[in-house]
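thought: fold this chain, then report.
action: predict
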Amino acid sequence: MTGASRGTGRRLVVEADGGSRGNPGVAGYGALVRDPATGAVLVELAEPLGKQSNNVAEYSGLIAGLRAVLDIDAGASVRVRMDSKLVVEQMSGRWKIKHEDMRRLALEARDLCAKISDGGGSVDFEWIPREKNKDADALSNAAMDGRSVHRVLTGDAREAADVSASEPDVEQAAAPVTARPLRLLLVQTPHDDGPAEGIVGAVRRLVGPGALVVGADDDESARLARSIARAVGTEATTSTDWSGRAPGEAGDVSVVTAYRSLAGTGGTAVVVTSRRGVLSVLADVLGTPVERFWALATAPGSLTAVEVWEDGSASVAFTNRTNHLA
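observation:
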């Protein structure tokens, strides 16, 4: 795919993988973005997916890698390298997509490719044998072991990684994931517009003017996000990333990726999302096991606050605040 506008001329490589122990079974994905000129790894990602198929895990790795590219340089020329013949052939348009889950994920991946194309970049796909995809495979296995990884590697971190490449624990190469603190206020989408006035008033008291406001792409979330944005003097955006509709019943990988993107930016943000969206963020912060994902009570219209600090550590300020609904 080639963009009509002029790109940046930068080249990036995405290496992605996913796996499932049981197919379907315990699943996870791994992805990284590499500078092909130097071989340096810029971002490493891994995320457990609960019980999923291999194909869902592989597509999830691709999506995470493309999102990371958009964060780095939306106008880059991107080569995606995967050992999944299915994903490469489907994304290249040579194989049909028969299963509904695959169609949805392929559409999401194509939307991300289109955003890169719109920025003047391009995306192409290359199949590689598994032995040449060892780094992404290692990340996906870490995810299947229950580990979440989100590493943005700075120059110093890459030097540390080069020195300790033989060591099994690469956590020491991690750089801080945010340049400034993030204050995130999560608003669980209400069932109707009735509580909107109380929600908007509560949000206005908690955040200052000019906060980033994002809503999931359903009508109720989008309307409430626009009302909140007007109250704090900004413009609202909507995003499918916060819909909470990804396959599975545990944390939504798109929501977690969107949350971590906010953490990388910092500032103050208000997000209107579903119960699953709220719980996906909380599970990521608290390390909630999959079997306890739904254990935390949250009500429609409730507020939940998360804070992320410069070193990447996060805390939950409060959950399920509902006094504004009385």
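thought: worth noting. The longest strand covers residues 41-52.
final: tokens above.
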